[in-house]
TrEMBL record:
<dbReference type="InterPro" id="IPR012678">
    <property type="entry name" value="Ribosomal_uL23/eL15/eS24_sf"/>
</dbReference>
<dbReference type="GO" id="GO:0006412">
    <property type="term" value="P:translation"/>
</dbReference>
<dbReference type="GO" id="GO:0003735">
    <property type="term" value="F:structural constituent of ribosome"/>
</dbReference>
<dbReference type="InterPro" id="IPR013025">
    <property type="entry name" value="Ribosomal_uL23-like"/>
</dbReference>
<dbReference type="InterPro" id="IPR012677">
    <property type="entry name" value="Nucleotide-bd_a/b_plait_sf"/>
</dbReference>
<comment type="similarity">
    <text>Belongs to the universal ribosomal protein uL23 family.</text>
</comment>
<keyword id="KW-0694">RNA-binding</keyword>
<keyword id="KW-0689">Ribosomal protein</keyword>
<keyword id="KW-0687">Ribonucleoprotein</keyword>
<dbReference type="GO" id="GO:0005840">
    <property type="term" value="C:ribosome"/>
</dbReference>
<dbReference type="GO" id="GO:0019843">
    <property type="term" value="F:rRNA binding"/>
</dbReference>
<comment type="function">
    <text>One of the early assembly proteins it binds 23S rRNA. One of the proteins that surrounds the polypeptide exit tunnel on the outside of the ribosome. Forms the main docking site for trigger factor binding to the ribosome.</text>
</comment>
<dbReference type="GO" id="GO:1990904">
    <property type="term" value="C:ribonucleoprotein complex"/>
</dbReference>
<keyword id="KW-0699">rRNA-binding</keyword>
<comment type="subunit">
    <text>Part of the 50S ribosomal subunit. Contacts protein L29, and trigger factor when it is bound to the ribosome.</text>
</comment>
<protein>
    <recommendedName>
        <fullName>Large ribosomal subunit protein uL23</fullName>
    </recommendedName>
</protein>
<dbReference type="Pfam" id="PF00276">
    <property type="entry name" value="Ribosomal_L23"/>
</dbReference>
Length: 99
């Protein structure tokens, strides 16, 4: 593996498995990933294509703001993070259970 491929492999943290993401996968062939905060759409596209061997049609990203939570007397804040919705080309699929 080249250094560029190692950098791309560190862009994706984990797939997000929820009811909403399962519906997106079934209906629109979209998969949801938690990604590095500094990742760009092109990096996310290249990382998904490298890791899963599929062709990506589109990438949509959104920044999720961390919530303010109370820990006993003090207030704390959860970390901000980035979410990516990756739409695949027709005919391509990712099996998250086996990946």
């Amino acid at each position: 593996m080249s250094i560029e491929q190692i950098k791309l492999a560190s862009v994706l943290y984990a797939p997000i498995v929820s009811e909403k993401s399962s519906n997106a996968a079934d209906q629109n062939n979209q998969f949801v990933f938690k990604v590095k905060k500094s990742a760009t759409k092109l990096q996310i596209k290249n990382a998904v294509e490298l890791m899963f061997g599929v062709e990506v049609a589109a990438v949509r990203v959104l920044n999720v703001k961390g919530k303010i939570k109370r820990f006993g007397r003090t207030l704390g804040k959860r970390s901000d993070w980035k979410k990516a919705y990756v739409k695949l080309q027709p005919g391509h699929n990712i099996e998250l259970a086996t990946a």
